[in-house]
Amino acid sequence: MKTKAVIAGAATLVLAGALVSCSAGGDDSGDGGGGGGSDASNCTNTITKTDLPVVTMWAWYPNMETVVDNFNEASDDVQVCWTNAGAGGDAYDKFQTAISAGSGAPDVMMVEADRIPTFQVQDALVDLSDLGYEDVKDNFSEGAWKDVSVGDGIYGAPVDGGPMGMIYRTDIFEQYGLTAPTTWQELESTAQALKDAGGPVFASFAANQPATTTAYFYGNGAEPFTYDPANEGEIGINLNSPEIKEVLDYWDGLVDKGLVGTEDQFTPEYIAGVIGGDYATYLSAAWAPGYLQGAGVGEGADAGVWGVAPMPQWDPANPISINWGGSAFVVSSQASNPELAAKVAFGVYADQASLDEGWQQQIIFPLNANVLSSAEFQDYEVPFFSGQQANKEVYVPAADAYTGMTYTPLGQYYYTALTNQIAAIIDGSATGSEAADALQADVVAYAEEQGFTVVE
Hints:
Layout: H1 3-10, H2 18-22, E1 54-58, H3 64-74, E2 79-83, H4 89-101, E3 108-112, H5 116-120, H6 133-136, H7 142-147, E4 149-150, E5 153-154, E6 157-169, H8 170-175, H9 184-196, E7 203-204, H10 210-219, E8 225-227, E9 234-237, H11 242-256, E10 260-261, H12 268-276, E11 281-285, H13 288-294, E12 306-310, E13 323-331, H14 338-347, H15 352-360, H16 369-372, H17 375-378, H18 390-401, H19 411-427, H20 432-449, E14 453-455
Parallel strand pairs: 1-2, 1-3, 7-10, 9-14
Antiparallel strand pairs: 3-13, 4-5, 6-11, 6-12, 6-13, 8-9
Helix pairs in contact: 11-20, 19-20
């Protein structure tokens, strides 16, 4: 089967906006140390306990040097040599090169959860099930663990996630007498009322955010993929199910009626529109306030006008929480000491000081249950939301109820294919249902090219 070789080539595909979706952003320069790989002499941080063994790490969280210093100060077993090898795609490209070469990978690396199967299928990651997982199992939810699992294997130590909510302009809602919709049907009627009153579009449906649309699929009870490497070469693909067609037809209808914008997100033009009140809402993840503030939102005329509410539901009697983004630490199969590397993966960014700084500075939305359940976190009056207790009201319940997604080695190709189909919906060349059928045919054909046996 040629799956591993071809997936290796596909692993270099980069999803636009992927970095933003892992947390609240980071340094995307790729020059923070050059990528030291397994070379423990090329550290960005300073190791003070020079008599201890060293584990190398690539990671791009904005506060990573502080996090590493916190870990090293507390550890009497191992020290971390951290390098910023670039953010997102830059780091993945370097890691893929090291995988192909058989050397040069770090012991531990930060990855977005949806990338894990792409590297796991190449035997590039270590299963952590017997390397400390049981000791930290209760610190994270079922959904957090599922996102870093491939089949029965645990291939990542969760850190942050992106439980979703509806960020909205309180000034626009007050001006037009709107209340936050609790169902997707209410969202459409609210958006129509806003348009009829001469207001802005209600939300955004952007082709360059397929991960968001995938979350919407899960929110309607869809299961786009099934995948377990124990069933070697077999993958389930169900991208034109009734649930997925309903979601795409719904957004197709909003586009046709002019109720949502269709501009690409994460562009200067889009951010200018957010600041200028061109959108009444931003359906996004818990890391979004940090990202928006970093982009200049909430600092000028739009300061003090933001609130957040739970995501709309298809069936309020059976609500489904959804997630966009999230990162973890994985252990490379090139690690010279997997046990020590796993200790680092599970232990770094897990101490109280690092976690507190992460959420208080809006760098991450932590998934550690000890943080999520703490009064300090739940009762925090978020400045971006004018003191609203957004964690307690929206994000913690969403994180606790989230049950996870099934990621596959086809993830990056799937995102590209979905981007193309969303663009077809937007330009009117396909209905939602037609786009779902085309998406199914495209991804199935690609999977079969890679040597998979597709179960539809």
